[in-house]
């Protein structure tokens, strides 16, 4: 598969704060690549550098194997902030301005195509200020794909949307990816990454903790939901067993991670040998949240 993006040891400091401490990632054609991390982990800084809005202090990156010159970005559509269009203009007129700024040809056909793509064609004549937040976000995606770029970069694309708006954006992104586009999404919403991405990079404090396919991340360990009559005693006992790692409370039980090779009976035995008897032991649905907590807690 062709390389779309390679970053090598990107560094960025804001005065004394090291926002990025040597980030190296690679994105290949066709991937839906999630940059996942808690608030402040450096996702927006990374995207800003890659899109030429922020200057890195060190390291390098290359788009399409052609280096980091500004021209290489003409093939990238981006949505970095809350959409900002002219409130008193309708969707078509707003997109005409975008087309003029980008010097695009066949403006009318392009605009019709992208507005249909994001399901706003029926509302094409309404002014931007009358749009719901979800519609504004869809118009922003229409704008980002107006030049028909091969790559789409999205920062927190569902921020602030209600569940229906989130579902619409998610399905739109998946449809766009199905056309063969490469998509890079920054998000702190695990569920979003889990439902959309094929690959994920987990960031913490400006460092890459893990980069893998979503499947690899999900099958690494198993997560058990366990409980006993005395949950505090159970938590203390877990600290004495290196094979078990506490993940989080799931009242009245707790979630722990354990190497996939260790059977549930073995877990029960290890705890019983330390005088703790479980009243609950079941496999918890493996999801990215457990893995994410596990990885960033290390
Ligand atoms: N312009 C700036 N000046 C000073 N510090 C900044 C600036 N921009 C970001 N930071 C700091 O750099 C760190 C990384 O921020 P960044 O916005 O890249 O993280 P993020 O993962 O995108 O977080 P969020 O999800 O909250 O947007 C944070 O500690 C943030 O406070």
UniProtKB/TrEMBL annotation:
Residues 5-230 form the ABC transporter domain. InterPro entries: AAA+_ATPase, ABC_transporter-like_ATP-bd, ABC_transporter-like_CS, P-loop_NTPase. GO terms for molecular function: ATP binding; ATP hydrolysis activity. Keywords: ATP-binding, Nucleotide-binding, Transport. The keyword Aminoacyl-tRNA synthetase does not apply. The keyword Zinc does not apply. Transmembrane segments: none annotated. PROSITE patterns: ABC_TRANSPORTER_1 (PS00211), ABC_TRANSPORTER_2 (PS50893). Belongs to the ABC transporter superfamily. This is ABC transporter ATP-binding protein.
């Amino acid at each position: 598969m062709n390389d779309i993006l390679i970053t090598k040891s990107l560094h960025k400091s804001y005065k004394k704060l090291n926002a990025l401490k040597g980030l190296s990632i690679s994105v290949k054609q066709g991937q839906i690549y999630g940059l996942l991390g808690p608030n402040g982990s450096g996702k927006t800084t990374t995207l800003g550098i890659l899109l030429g809005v922020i200057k890195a202090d060190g390291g390098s990156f290359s788009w399409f194997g052609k280096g980091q010159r500004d021209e290489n970005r003409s093939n990238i559509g981006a949505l970095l902030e809350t959409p900002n269009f002219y409130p008193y203009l309708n969707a078509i007129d707003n997109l005409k301005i975008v087309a003029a700024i980008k010097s695009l040809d066949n403006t009318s056909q392009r605009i019709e195509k992208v507005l249909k793509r994001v399901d706003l064609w029926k509302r094409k004549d309404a002014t931007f200020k009358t749009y719901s937040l979800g519609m504004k976000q869809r118009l922003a995606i229409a704008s980002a794909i107006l030049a028909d770029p091969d790559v789409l970069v999205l920062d927190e694309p569902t921020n602030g949307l209600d569940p229906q708006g989130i579902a619409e954006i998610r399905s739109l992104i998946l449809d766009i990816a199905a056309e063969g586009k490469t998509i890079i999404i920054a998000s702190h919403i695990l569920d979003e990454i889990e439902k959309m991405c094929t690959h994920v990079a987990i960031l913490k404090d400006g460092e890459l903790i893990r980069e893998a396919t979503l499947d690899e991340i999900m099958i690494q360990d198993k997560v058990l939901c366990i409980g006993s009559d005395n949950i505090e005693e159970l938590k203390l006992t877990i600290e004495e067993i290196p094979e078990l790692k506490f993940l989080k409370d799931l009242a009245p039980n707790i979630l722990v991670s354990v190497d996939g090779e260790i059977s549930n009976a073995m877990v029960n035995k290890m705890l019983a040998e330390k005088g703790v008897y479980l009243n609950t032991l079941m496999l918890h649905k493996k999801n990215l949240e457990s893995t994410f907590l596990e990885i960033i807690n290390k």
